[in-house]
């Protein structure tokens, strides 16, 4: 399930990411690439292919930089800004 959408006081949508469980293989490259340290593998979930998927653990810390998107070898991340 996608994270809920947060907005700023001015009504602007805050950056967030969506991870595609079908394509994520739990490699963790995006976790290492995130400069804000707000990504982790979700050890409580297993994808249909048997992996722990990446998860945004602190949405308020995401700056929408796209490092995770650019790093993911499986194009499993969408950055929403
Ligand atoms: S967009 Fe940037 S800050 Fe947000 S989760 Fe991805 S790498 Fe981290
Ligand atoms: S880099 Fe891509 S495939 Fe690897 S854990 Fe992150 S989202 Fe999943």
Q: Would you give an account of this structure?
A:
- It is a single chain.
- This protein is an alpha+beta fold and 81 residues long.
- The protein has a single domain, classed as Alpha-Beta Plaits.
- It is 12% helix and 17% strand.
- The chain is built from two helices and four strands, in the order βαββαβ.
- The strands form two sheets. It has a two-stranded antiparallel ribbon with strand order 1-4. Strands 2-3 form a two-stranded antiparallel sheet.
- The longest helix is centred in the middle third of the chain and has 5 residues.
- The two termini are 18 Å apart.
- The mean pLDDT is 92.
- Bound molecules: iron/sulfur cluster (2 copies).
- One iron/sulfur cluster (SF4) binds next to α2.
What small molecules does the structure contain? iron/sulfur cluster
The description of the largest β-sheet is: 2 strands, antiparallel
Question: What count of structural domains?
Answer: 1
* CATH hierarchy, class: Alpha Beta
| Content-based structural category | alpha+beta
Q: Regions with pLDDT < 50 over 5+ consecutive residues?
A: none
Rounded mean pLDDT is 92
Tally of contiguous helical segments = 2
N-to-C SSE series?
A: EHEEHE
CATH topology: Alpha-Beta Plaits
Strand portion: 15-25%
- Cα distance spanning the termini: 18 Å
Which radius of gyration do the C-alpha atoms yield?
Answer: 12 Å
Apparent shape: globular
Order of the strands making up the biggest sheet: 1-4
- The level of helicity is 10-25%
- CATH architecture label: 2-Layer Sandwich
Number of strands: 4
